[in-house]
Write a structure and sequence with these properties.
By secondary structure, this protein is α+β, with helices and mostly antiparallel strands. The chain is built from 7 helices and 5 strands; from the N terminus they run αβαβααβαβαβα.
């Protein structure tokens, strides 16, 4: 007979990401962040390949990334609004964790499954931060997919990609609940 954990299930049924623009300091210090990061790494990982890694970004690193995004966006001729929005994701943040998908050559585990595992790390990190009482949000944006940004400024290898930037901080303004998917429209039951 299974042993239910109603508190965990209630958390998952009511969890809510917090918009990054509503997050501010204080942020978790290293001691508070370590169990959140550790929980994030307890994610499905076929073959025990650990095809991901984390980069904790704060302070001057976030400001440096904001400047790099702005310079790249201008050089590429991107719309000013898109550049400002992407740069602001870093400039206005107090703490973000970059989840890096780092696939491993494996004859048994396809790369797509390894990328799904990196996505699972993002959700686990988001939920662990929320469960610890912090506000958190999972973002990407155009710079997350630009080799000219992620390789020189985040130190990614040519086979690595950004699965997400998880912003963590103190929530300043709880947003209203948003509409959720209708389970009847999204779930199929197959018995035969």
């Amino acid at each position: 007979m299974p042993v239910p954990n109603p508190d965990a299930l209630d958390f998952l049924l009511t969890r809510r990401s917090r918009p990054a623009k509503t997050l501010t300091g204080p942020t978790p210090d290293r001691t508070a962040l370590e169990p959140i990061l550790t929980a994030a790494l307890r994610t499905p990982d076929h073959g025990k390949l650990e095809p991901w890694r984390l980069i904790v970004l704060d302070g001057a690193a976030l400001q440096r990334l904001a400047g790099a995004v702005e310079a790249l966006g201008v050089a590429q001729g991107r719309e000013a609004e898109a550049v400002a929005k992407m740069a602001g994701q870093f400039a206005k943040a107090d703490l973000a964790v970059a989840v890096i998908a780092s696939p491993v050559n494996s004859p048994k585990v396809p790369e797509v499954e390894q990328l799904h595992s990196a996505g699972a790390v993002c959700l686990s990190l988001l939920n662990a931060a929320l469960a610890a009482g912090w506000g958190a949000n999972w973002l990407t944006g155009w710079a997350a997919h630009e080799r000219g940004f992620i390789e020189p400024h985040l130190g990614l290898a040519s086979h690595e990609t950004v699965a997400g930037f998880i912003h963590i901080g103190t929530e300043t303004n709880a947003p209203p609940e948003r509409p959720r998917p209708d389970p009847a429209a999204k779930i199929a039951w197959v018995s035969e």
